[in-house]
Task: structure prediction
Amino acid sequence: MNDELKPWSVTASRITYEDRWIRIRSDDCVTADGTVVAPFHVLDYPDWINVIPVMPDGRVLLTREYRHGRGEIVLGLVAGSLEPGDSKTGDPAMTAAQRELREETGYEASTFVKLLTSYPNAASHSNLVTSWLALGLSRVGEPSFDPGEKVELLFADLAAILGELQSGAVIMQSMHVAALYAAESWLRTQASEGLKAASGRSLSSCPGLAGGAVDPPRFSGLLHIQSAAVCFARFKRRAALQRRKADKTPDRDAEEHVETERRPAGPEENIRSFR
Result:
């Protein structure tokens, strides 16, 4: 670390524009070497979240929405801003993720995994963005969009989306791209641990593992990461149930979660697949 790097001093600060969408703070600054930078405009956005919902079969749920900055229909993730009421909860970012998932997709998730927290643009933005993986999805209703908001939902294979991004065939918001790669890394880790945990067990019920044979090269591609991660999640839930039964303390949430595996996640007729 370079100890010569020091924050700027702020000699004056004022709000030069504010509405319901954005607040612009204009600072008069002095750098460590005495250079005056004035004004320097900072975009004071609320913190953001994005969510990658993973279906029981391993598909991810994406959005398509008109983005006026580019003037284009853009593929992306469930996303939104933290609201004032979120700060009253234990984890404001997760509360916002739960709300946005329900509002934009009509789904709820039993588990949220925090993938990463990052700066959207530390040079000029003051906020953070937190990316979440949503697991254990169930359809609880229809989406509830804000006035003027229209979002198309579609299912996609994670490997296919990453391949399209790498080839340049698809362009997405950079924070969403980072979240997708973080999700792939998490799923790969869980898949690897799941295969180790499943060693010596019957794997015939797991997608992509028909006959119980584990072929390592078969799992070297991204196409099978989701399947292995689903298997790992199933084994974890079963192990938790077994522990609960051994302790004679039933875990109703775990029992219900296992049951939802056998049921469809909900009506999906209106949600098409990517490509």
